[in-house]
Write a structure and sequence with these properties.
With about 200 residues, the protein is α/β, with parallel strands linked by helices. About 30% of the residues lie in helices and about 25% in strands. β7 (about 125-130) and β8 form a beta hairpin. α3 (about 80-90) packs antiparallel against α5.
Length: about 200
Amino acid sequence: MDTSQITGLILAGGRGTRMGTVDKGLQLFRDAPMALHVLMRLSPQVGDVMINANQNIAPYEGFGVPVWQDEMQGFAGPLAGLQTGMAHCETDYLVTAPCDSPFLPKDLVARLAAGLEEKNADLAVAVTGEGESRQPHPVFCLAKASLLPHLTLYLQEGGRKFDAWYASLTVAEVHFDDEDAFRNINTLDDLRKYEATAP
């Protein structure tokens, strides 16, 4: 898959309630906003990058990429961010990563793309762990931008859960060994802990 045909979308549209209703993507981690760490890791893997944010738009615009607010009102979750990204996507594929995941794999997009092509799937989702500890990470997904009407209908019918949305689609689950790469920083305690310990 030609990476120039993949747009990256950083999901920064949440309320950050578990972090005390602060904007998670703008919290400093190792002297830079978390979303900027994500941007620096994702950018080399894709043709273009954009950010989905619903507050503090100007600081996000300062990163030098387009910023789009949810098409839906009311902080409807990551699927609303994905819908917004698809609506503004000018490439065939869209890959997502949350703004609070500064360790995301540097081969995330290549491996998701290989999985999607191998299975001729509609979207590819990262998975870690085995057996009972197996964990899908649907906010790290590569999807065909042409899924926009399907996703919009699901949202209009009140659906909000990622896995329930893609249950009716052909999905490639791509296994990653490094669980730490998908670690997201949800609380200020996490932020302080990983400042000191994470690679």
